[in-house]
Amino acid sequence: MALDKTKTATERQAALDYHEFPHPGKLEIRPTKPMATGRDLALAYSPGVAEACLEIAKNPLDATRYTAKGNLVAVITNGTAVLGLGNIGAQASKPVMEGKAVLFKKFAGLDCFDIEVDEKDPEKLADLVCKLEPTFGAINLEDIKAPDCFIVERICRDRMNIPVFHDDQHGTAIVVAAATTNALKINGKNPKDIRVVGLGAGAAGIACHTMLRKMGVPLGATTLFDKAGVLHSGRTDLCPEQMEFATADVSTTLEEALKGADLFLGLSGPGLLAPELVSAMALNPIIFALANPTPEIMPDEVRAASPGAMIATGRSDYPNQVNNVLCFPFIFRGALDVAASDINDEMKLACVEAIASLARATTSAEVGQAYQGERLTFGPEYLIPKPFDPRLLPTIALAVAKAAITSGVAQKEIDLEVYRRTLEAQVFRSSLIMRQAFATARQAKRKIVFAEGEDDRVIRAAQAMVEDTVDTPILIGRPEIIEARIERAGLTIKPGQDFEIVNPENDVRYRDYWQTYHKQMERRGVSPDLAKAVLRTNTTAIAAVMVARGDADSLICGTFGQYLWHLNYIKQMLVDHDLHPVAALSLIILDDGPLFIADTHINMEQTAETLVETTIAAARHVSRFGIEPQIALCSGSQFGNLDCVSGRVMRAALKILDQKKLDFNYEGEMNTDAALDPELRARLFPDNRLSGKANVLIYANTDAAGAARNLLKSVAGGLEVGPILMGMGNRAHIVTAGVTVRGLLNIAALAGSDVSSYG
User: Fold this and answer.
1) Of 9, 132, 487, 594, most Cβ neighbours within 10 A?
2) Which residues participate in catalysis according to the annotation?
3) Reduced to 3 states, what is the DSSP secondary structure of residue 478?
């Protein structure tokens, strides 16, 4: 978009500082393979590299196996039509191209090189691009002026056997088509029955109207205008792509064309559509005013002229922002993953429907978190999804890959179900390791009660449970508050139908609940009056009573408040001769795999006996995830070299464990680095019993375990599942205040499994 001249000097400087510090630019290159030893060098370069070269020489498609080509996109421009800045030249366009590369990486995990070419001649530029085919898996043409962009793309697509996509054209067209699809659904109209008026016949405008034609809008139903007036067959200044839409009468005016029209599509300049022209359109018209930064008409002017109009702009401060980022990272992802030779019409239309369908689905929890305060419910002000919807990647890339296979341009066979799971694992880091837990949970329908039922995260988690599991959520909270927050978030779950509500202020079971609590606690100083007060005010106590009475199978609490405070009420109601809190186990998902840590919350100072319990319970729970436990007892002492408290208690625990003849690997006591570095551990203690890197770290106190947990989350970017409360038979789990909606859904899946299902 054009630079806003009203920006303050501070804002301008902030933008410049962002690009300059701490390193100039927005990109860097990092190796993906180790380069620490002579052997690494021999594999990476000479002589090992020759083997990969020979394989590619035999089969060029193997370049996607042995090099980065299959994940590499070139963003190419000559700088002749950069955003709203115009022809600023190749070098001045580089910040924009770097930004585009960053979006590819951020949203789809694709690596990019930005290539700015100082070549104005479209045929020579196309020739340069074609010569890059051995390097890249796909080409994204960017910010090339019309009509040159048509020429460059046409030549490249004809000559190259990899996808070539001009995003300014097709990206915009796909998002506009998705928004149009949903707007027509709301209006109850069919594409073949509408009339369209377009203002702007450049690359994006032509591509948008071409896409609308492919959706079913008849050619004769489109009237298109540019700076010189209406497009008609007598004009001699139009390129072939524009001539396709030169169907109007030479004397047609914008005012005449808009009378009774259903859709206005503007890709032109600011203030070019007068409100009175909107008034003359069909009832509840569709107004897509996409000029940036100032649209052809402002949304408030449209509303005044036609209150029922559906409006989209290119701006982020109004609903329905038409943003190419909804499309281009994901269509390239799908195309590259099947080694497509082209991005054809079938793939583009699949992308259109995928985007449109996401807007019609329930808004994801992550989107709700990113856009707090906005109502994100399908309707006139929510025609297309938001850019930070994590479902865009798995939904669009899968649809595009499937369309590529079906239409015959895919050069690689893939299992689409496996591919779907892989894509979901990229955006939902816990999805892969949690798959088995979710599958197990679906074997039995359980009731899960959430103590903090008014929390927005809990309400969204309940929605997700209804969509993804067979369990029934129970929310403790005031019905009017819960229902208002469901409405505000645009969720679809209904109390009494999809979930239950327990109202702490007025529930028919109140008498039974406080009496149950009193009976359990009467010899621990709790009077009837106190029991009544607790059961009116303490939602964790209510949840614990529900589980104790069999009204729920498991409880989840802890979205606010201190962990041990919640644990106290769980212990009061649910501990018996079979169940007691053993330890808290946190699963931390890191880039190089999962790591479990215990005890993070329960035993402030472990004894040998509690360490033994923690170790055995951790092994059982880790196996639940399909992982073979490799348990390290971690201490400041290293295999007996220090006479410290943690060393002594660890050594005592090790002796007890050895007597039990257990069927999993454990070892101790050792430093954390030795646990995680098999080579270091082998040098220190060659006969150690662990196989490879430890995946479970057990500490002698919660200070050490909690510090390790928090460091891995905060510094290493670890994603936590848990804490898992071990020893309570899955009847209770306590999360922590920073838990996300996804985290609550994960712990609900764990709570939804009967303990008998995992040994």
Assistant:
1) 594
2) 45, 100
3) coil
